[in-house]
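Second attempt. The first submission of DUF4138 domain-containing protein had a stray character pasted in from the spreadsheet, which I only caught after the job came back as garbage. Lesson logged: always re-copy from the clean sequence file. Corrected sequence (262 aa) follows.
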Amino acid sequence: MKRSGWALCAVAMVFFNMVWSQRGLDTIYANASKNVTLFFPSPIRQAIVGSEHFVFSYDREEAGYFGLLQGVEGAESNLLVITLDHQVYTYILKYAKELSQLNHFVREVDGIGKIGPVKQLQAKEDSMVVGTSHYNRFSKLLLDAKPKKMMTKRKKDIRLRLEDMVYNRGEVYLVFGIRNRSGIDFEVERLDVFQINGRAKRRASYQEIPLEPIYGHNVPKRIKDGEMVRFVYVLPKFVLGDKERLKLVLEELHGSRRMELR
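This time the job returned cleanly.
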């Protein structure tokens, strides 16, 4: 666990002792088939859950006002959230097969207190280097393994393949392969990853959530004609429900070629 994670846990223990002596914590129920959304009055700075049974996803690059919670059956856990205004929120997390509430609008008065800008909670450069080094080593191991075939799409002699999806620590590793036999070099504009639920034709029940990589290994800018390139995306851990799947969108720079893989 990174130092920032240990610091968050230490802060959580202090606040939990304070809160239990004042009032019981609110409970939020979650499962793997639906996203439970928590809206906060201030953008989320940091968040941590106490068990791998639950995943709380939020925008780590540009602080946003909401996070998405999912969970699988298992022991109850807890969630600690610190917002940019230094307000601290904490909840008990439990699994439920059926959910009666999917959206929670958090008020500032729901917080358990405020903290100052504690230096220990900020990611240190050395911890970031350690994390990047781990991503690099594990990505190399995945690329050394025999390629698999989870999903494949071919269009105009360009083949996009999702080879593997591996959970490791608190992240998900996606292994991709792109082959170019089009006769023309393919410059990569972007490869976007989405978590989707439902069908696009039924807009009322359709959800499409972008998943932002936190690290990329061997990600190509150009794939030459006749070349096969394999690379890895590292994303914050997420859980796909029974009716959820991934959507990949590959777009060409300075060109019109576009591929969509589900």
